[in-house]
Every structure is written in C-alpha cells, then in structure tokens.
Specification:
Chain A: It comes from Stakelama tenebrarum. The complex is a heterodimer of chains A (53) and B (710). Chain A is 62% helix and 0% strand. Chain A is built from 2 helices and no strands. In chain B, a hairpin with a 3-residue loop joins β17 and β18. The longest helix of chain B has 36 residues. The chains are: A mainly alpha (53), B alpha+beta (710).
Chain lengths: 53, 710
Amino acid sequence: MNGLAILIPVALLLGLSGIGAFFWAAKSGQFDDLDGAAMRILIDDEDKPDTRE
Amino acid sequence: MNAPAAARRPEPLTTSTFAVEGMRCAGCIAKIEHGLAADNDIATARVNFTTRQVRVAHLSEIDPEAIAERIRALGFEAHEAQNERPAGFTDESRKLVLALAVAGFAAMNVMLLSVSVWSGADGATRGMFHWISALIALPAAAYSGQTFFKSAWSALKRGRTNMDVPISIGVVLALALSVYETATGGIHAYFDGALMLLFFLLGGRFLDSVMRQKAQDGITALLRRLPNDALVLGKDGTTSRRAIDELAPNMKLLVAAGERIAADGVVLSGESDVDRSLVTGESDAEPVVEGSEVLAGTINLSAPLTVKITGVGNDTTIAEIARLMESAGQGKSRYTRIADRAARLYAPAVHSLALLTFAGWMIAGMGLHASITTAIAVLIITCPCALGLAVPISQVVVTGAMMRKGIMVKDGSGLERLARADAAIFDKTGTITIGRPLVTAGMPEDATERAALLALARTSNHPASRAIVCTLGDSIDAAEASALQEVPGKGVCGIVAGRKAMLGRPDWVGSSGHDGSGTSFRLGDGPVHHIVTEDQPRPDTVAALARMQRLGIGCTMISGDAADPVARLADRLGIEGRARMRPEDKVAAIRALEESGHHVLMVGDGLNDGPALRAASVSMAPSSATDVGRQAADIVFLGDGLAPVPMAIAAARRTMAVVKQNFAMAVIYNLFAVPLAMAGFVTPLIAAAAMSGSSLIVVANALRLRGAAR
C-alpha cells in the first residue's frame, strides 16, 4: 500500500509530462510539414560551418 | 538544419507566402530555399512541402510579385498566396489529436487501475482506485469529449439527432453512474469504458480529418489568374501602368504579345491570335481582328493589340464562371454521409432499448439503482465504437492505397459519392487529351528544310509552332535566319540561306486545297508542306474507357471546341461527343442527367469546367489541371493516363462494400451484446472486452482494402 502511494502518483506524473511534451510539440509546429521533414534529411547542407580544426 | 538561418540585417522584415507548383523532391526544396536566401534582400525562405507553400521573410520594399518572379526563374510555377493556410495540421486536426492524446493517456491509466480492481482488489483499496480513476477520467473526458458534446448539443438544440447524441449521453451517464457508485462504495465503475469509447471514436474522427486535408493542395484565387496591372492608353496618347482594380469600361488597353489580357473588351486595332483555353477550353488559338471580342484571362499570342474595355472585375466572363461555380455546389451539400444515415437509425434504437430496459426492471421490482445501472450498461455496451470507426478506417486505408497509385482523395464523402456514380462526363481538352497539340503529319524530311523550319517556329508563341519545336526538339540545329518577322494572324517569315521561308496559314504560304486549318511551311520555291497538329488523346484512353464500360458507366465527352475535332475524336474513341459547350451548358447537361436519376462523375481540368465539376455528384481532375479545376474536384489524379479514373471507381466501390460489411458486423455484435446487457449480465470487464473486440474486428476488416487500388 505504501509502495502504491508513491508509485501511482509517480506514474501519473510521468504520463502527464509525456502529454505535456506532446502538447508542446503540436502547438509549436513540429507536425506542420511532415512530408517536408522526411525530405529534408536528404538535403546536403553546404552552408554548415566547418568545425574541423 | 531545420531552423531558418538568422536574418542578416536588422531592417524591418515582411513575410509573404507563395503557393508553389512543381515541387517534387528534396532537391526542389533546397533549390528554392537556397536560391531565394542567396539574394541580399531576402532574409529567410522556408518551404512547407505538405502545403506546397514557401514562406519568405524579406525587406518590405520588395514587391511580392518580384519574389514570385524569382521563384519562377528557379523553375517553379509560383503565385502569391492570399492567406496562408494553417500548415499541416489544420486547427480541427490539431484539436482532435490533442484530445486523442489525452483520452489515450487517461484510458490507459484508468484501465491499469481497473485491472487491479477486476483481479480482486476490494474494500479500501478498491475505493481508492475508483477515486483515482475518477480523478483522471473526469477532467480527461471533459477535455477530450468536447467535440462530441458540442456537436450533440447543437443537434439537440435544432431538435435533430446525430451520431454524437448517443455518444455524449452514454459517456455522461456512464461517468455520472460511476461517480455515484464510487461515492457509495459500489463494486462496478465504468470509467475505463467511457474513456475507451472516447479514445476509439476520436481515433476515427482524427483519421477522417487527416484524410480530408491530405490531398488539399495549393491555394486558389480565381481572379488571381488575371494580371495585376495593365498598360492603359490615356486620352492624350500617353501610356501608364494601372492596377487592375483601377480599370473601368471604355478605357483603352495596350496588350503586348504574350501578355494576359486584363479585362473583357473589343479589339480596336491590331491583328493577333488569342489563346482562350483558360476560359473556354478551346485548344486552338483564335485569330482576332478589329471588332473581335476578347476575354479577361486569355493570352494574346502574336502581336500587340489595342483593346477597348467592356467589362472589368466582377463583370468579366471569368468572374461569371466564379459565380456559376458558387451556385453549382448545391448538389454536393445535399449528400448525407453513410455514417450519418446509420446514426439516424442507431440513436433512436439504442435509446429506446435503454429506456425499455429501465422500465422493464422497474416493473420487475428491482429498484431504482439496479434498473439505472442496467440501463446504462446497455448504453455502454451498444458502444458505437465499431460504427464510428467503420467508415473512417476503411476510407483511410483505401485513400492510402490510392495515394500510392497517384490518386488523391480530398474527403471521404467524395469516395462515397464516387461509389454511386453511374455516368461519366469527360471534358475533352486536357482531360481526354494531353492538352497541347502535337505534330501528327506533314513534317518535311529534308534536313535543310527542317533546320529552316525550326528557325522560324522558335520565334513564335503559337501552339502549332511550339508543337513543331517540340517535335524537332534537339535532333537538329536551327538554321541561321535573318529578317525574321511575325505577320499577325498569318504566320512567320524570314530569309534562310538566301531563300524566303514561310510558316503560317496555308492560304498565306501559298498552298491550296486546304480549308485554312493547320499550318503550312515552304522554303524558297520548294514544295509546300502542310503540317497537321492535333491534340492527342492520353495514351491509355481507350483501355480506360473500356474499363469504365465494364464497370457499367456510360461515358460522354463534352468540349468547348468546334464540332469537327470533337466528332473526330469521339468516333475514334467510340463515345458520344458534344461540342461548343459553354460552362453553363456543361452544368445544364449534368443537371439534366442528375435529374433523370443518374449520379454523374465529371472529369475535367479547366477553369471552364469548374462549375461542372462542382455541379456533378462527384468530380475528378488531372493534376495538370488549372488550380481552379483541382480545387473544384473531389479527387485529383497524377500521371499521363486516364487509368486512375476507373481505378478510383473500382476502389470506391470496394470501400463501400467493406464499410457495409463493417456495419453488418457491428449490428451482429449488438444483437449478441444487447440481450446480455438487458438481462443484467454485463460487468465493466465484459463491456471493455466486448468493446475493444468489436473495434479490432472492424479495423482488421478495413485493412483488407490495402490493395484495393488496382
């Protein structure tokens, strides 16, 4: 019973934080261009700063 | 990588959005973004591939039209979008997906607690678990059930019922009963059932809304097909550029060769050819002389014209077509989706059964509490999950299959209407045919002549010249030609290697025995070549039409073209053809068919087909269509062939068959479940198992449609 008293709130909190993350992602436009996101991985980035020393 | 590069300068920036056509791959995205951002007056450019739009942040002093021009220079058709469509997820889908997430999270957690209760927790533990369930379920249901509650409430206010009414009543009653049970220390709570119901149904709704927006493409503004400004000839002989909304009747316009005409009018001086295909669907350029009428949106091909304006803005033919389109959309709005028709039967049946159960148990003397409990169990177990999922899941699976074949369905009701179609009307130019003339006969064989011909054809915008250039292509180099000039309404002539070369109307070039149609070519005093150009049917037209016949659909071809070419093509394809159809004639033809009890499928591409596409029960357009055509159609198909049309019909019919099977399964399931519930045998555990079971069966059956697009 003591274990439950801790574990149930913890489980709910974890779930809630997951939902919160999902809400944030949807609201901040992460899903606005899914087809484009799939394509963008193929674009060669030429304007990336050269990090080699 | 995904973050737009930081603005390079602190000046105030304006954001404009452009609809871009012709993006196909990652290379296109990179080309546009890098191409635009390379300019100093543009800070960032961000492509949204899903909506085919580009958002550009630029210095406020550059005109958006100039940016559109730059995008065109990169090789993509672009025009400024008037209002940016909310990208990817529309507001509706976004709300639904968030509600779905909440319902899913709550249903899972409550289910875990419920499992503990079912496996034997009792006393204080059970009480606590029920309270925790209530704590999760009530806010979650309040949030994620909004869609249903709102729609049910508005239906009830108008004294009607829809699918959402039984859902809302079931959910609210189940929650209320569960809270009461929890408070009085009862053993059965239905929190999990209520949430699961919401979760499954939201899943169906979400799939439905995603499907609706998936095939929506670029933004259309009909009147954006007109130029933004025009060159006006003032009374004192000076010319000035005026914005299109400043034009008024009786003004004089100067229209250069190759320019789109900005208003309806009458030609005052000049001779030229006009490409009217956008408005009338005619593929052949029409010669105009002094006194001819010209229409806004058509293109002046060969020589400058002075035009006296007779109609501007809302008085133009193009605006008339827009109004016709608005009024033609009535037939579609009258269609009721199959799910709603099912709901009309379902809701009263379920509610009367629940009421009957309650009354029966009261009469049997079981007491108020037991009677209400049983009645609510009936409401829950006749869960409309399967009904709510049956249609969307089938349609989502099949639209996925069709999309892989290059057929994009804009919304589910389009599929339902397509399955009922029993007559098809095809537009000719651009739908049955490719939409641009190709050379079919009469090209000179001699290399010198061919080189001279290419030199002449390259200088003109006339469709026939373009077809000749297309045919000769890269096979030869053009000859050196001098003194090239275009004689309006006649053709092109020039001097090639000291000999006069002429390309144009047969009577002008000097051939006889031709009826003035087609194009003749002559080099020096050599033979006259009569070059025949024709708009060719798409390669698989015959096979596609044959398959339409096998599906039991009678086909007709209608066209704005002259009677002769229409009759020739109709004979060749073995279908009925009607010529000289204006947009309103097309609508009338469709209305006549619809009134005689047919469900018409209209396949068309042009602006002139827009009203007809809207008037028919269901409509398809090739992706090469004008954006008006694509916007007006329910279904858009890619590729060069007509095969997608019968394929879509076959797939739609199979979908409806599966939907009906799913309904039948839901009914059979209820036939078993309802008597059990009415007898009072149903516990929350049985309800949960039965509900998920029926939904799974429906989904599994719908997955059989994965290969339906054949």
